[in-house]
Amino acid sequence: MSHDSEAAYASGEIADIIQGKAGLFFGTLTSGGTWTLSAGREGSTVWPLADGLIQAKNSKSTVNDVNIAFEYKRPNEGVHGILTAIGQSLAYIEKGYDASVICIPEGYTSHADPGAHVRNIIDTTAPNAPITVYTYDAPNMASTRPFNQKITCVKDIDLSKTVIYRSTSSKKISGQISTIWAHVREGMSHPDAFFRYCQGVKIISSVGEDKSKYVLPKEVVAAVKRADPTADPCMYLSNTSGDSMSDKAWRYIWYNYYFWDMLIPIYSSTAPYVPNDIETKIRIDSNTKQKLFSGRCDSIKSKLVDKLNTVAGYTEDEAWDEYVYRVRSDAHSYREVIDSGLYQIGLLDADGLLTDYGYKYVDACEKAGNDPYKDEPMNILRAVSINIGQFDVFLYTTYKYSQERFFKNFDDFTRIKKLKNGDKVEFVNNDYLVWLDDVLTNQLHMYKKTTQRAGGTRKPFQAEMSYLKKLGFIYKNEAFKRGTGLNIDWPLVEESLKYFQNL
Questions:
Q1: CA gyration radius for the chain?
Q2: Taking Cα atoms as reference points, which of 277, 332, 271 lies closest to residue 301?
Q3: Three-class SS of 171-220
Q4: How many whole angstroms separate alpha carbon 43 and alpha carbon 25?
Q5: Are 101 and 14 spatial neighbours (Cβ–Cβ below 8 Å)?
Q6: Model pLDDT, residue 1
């Protein structure tokens, strides 16, 4: 298992340990409330980047979140790794974290007690720093919790009594936390969207950006100026604020593939008004293009056209004003999912440039006739998603806990469905996913509960299921099986893990 996957399991285990002693760890910061901890990865790309983020939320809304950087070292990094861990932990506090956790092996061939060594260094040089230290024995990767009873705290803290020294230019981390595995979203995380964004980075890195090519209708420009007289319409509608590589790449894909000239108009005729139903240029599979702003009765174009046809006094200018507000909002949502996802699966680096894997992915797509759904591009996307994107953690953990559960009761999460020709045992997918949600949230602290993430409107693992089906790791036609739970294509998982080694 990779360093990042091990770190994911270890951070979840330490989150559980801290939650179990929350009163001692947080001290007076608790303020009479209770703490809930989640382990994940940092939701930004600002250096220095920790191996993980443990976020603590208090039941009292008046108590601020506590964000704890997590630094994990493996035995093969050698004893010098324990010294870099100390420096990194101090750097995370300077960056804006509230505390740091160091997690190192309990011993090396050349050092019998590295935990005590790290504790002594911190106690001598930074005794009041909010740094806690843990050591671990070799994890049992056959267990549902590989680090359970394998981790020992060798330096604890009362966070309320620690002292943070950082420069005046540093700001407290805002606390944006992503899941341990890569951030994806159904309806957005399409292979073609990933390819076109990466292709945009490749093109702009070579020839630069020419914003004059992004021509907008006069109605759109006028609506933007009514919303913000000082705004650049091109930047306003793409929700970009500058000229970083990620800004330029997002404008490239937004105006060439999403908000392109034929799609932009709200309506295609005016007597009566009819929604303009032109699709995006993004393919959700080899043959189907994605809809945006139209295609459903509750889409923004349909709603605006209905108001134009039925609401007395409602003007075209008012429709355009509502439209540009929605376009700007959706541009932000799509970008947040796509560029963060690309970074987290290793196709982009922290500066928004293509990694070696990113270049290999774009080249494979282009050699396949700009089709990311062909074999070679999909092999690369699967490989980086399962390895760098850490979906192996999600699939493996789901499998191990499901195996344990169904061994005890093969027919768990089933119900009898009455049919004319006899009774049928039916697997209740949602009940199973609710249980899995609880395991990953409350037992493993690897996931923020769905009700917290979206006001209770989203089903558990809705985004992950969509993405993993698209990659083929979960069988599309039979995603769940009685006595098994999530129906994972393990040969494809193994093939992707091996493919990555030669990528």
A1: 25
A2: 277
A3: CCCCCCEECCCCCCCCCCCCHHHHHHHHHHHHHHHHHCCCHHHCCCCHHH
A4: 24
A5: yes
A6: 72
Q: Are 136 and 106 in contact (CB under 8 A)?
A: yes
Preceding peptide of 272 cis, ω within 30°: yes
pLDDT score recorded for residue 4: 86
* Structure confidence by residue, pLDDT tens digits, 436-485: 999 998 889 887 654 444 445 678 899 999 999 999 999 999 999 999 99
pLDDT (tens digit per residue) in 396-416? 999 999 999 999 999 999 999
Residue type, position 486, single letter: L
Measured CA to CA, the distance from residue 19 to residue 443 in angstroms comes to: 11
DSSP-derived secondary structure letter, 65: P
Distance between CA atoms of residues 350 and 344, nearest Å: 10
Q: Average pLDDT of 314-332?
A: 97
Letter for the amino acid at 221? V
* Nearest Cα to Cα of residue 54 among 109, 110, 118, 10: 10
- Three-state DSSP class for residue 358: helix
Across the range 324-332, mean pLDDT stands at: 97
One-letter amino acid of 414: T
Pairing verdict, β 99-105 and 131-136? parallel
Interatomic CA distance for residues 43 and 61, integer angstroms: 22
| CA–CA separation, 460 and 431 (whole Å) | 10
**Tokens 């804006």 -> residue:** 96
- Residue (of 186, 183, 203) closest to 370 by Cα position: 203
Strands 480-481, 422-427: parallel, antiparallel or unpaired by DSSP? unpaired
DSSP 111: B
Q: Please give the structure tokens belonging to residue 40.
A: 């994940």
Among candidate residues 3, 10, 50, the one with its CA nearest the CA of residue 388: 3
Q: By C-alpha distance, which of 124, 126, 130 is closest to 156?
A: 130
Q: What does DSSP assign to residue 42?
A: E
> What's the burial of 499, exposed, middle or buried (CB within 10 Å: 0-12/13-18/19+)?
middle
Residue 471 has a CB neighbour count (10 Å cut-off) of 20
Neighbour tally for 408: CB within 10 Å: 7
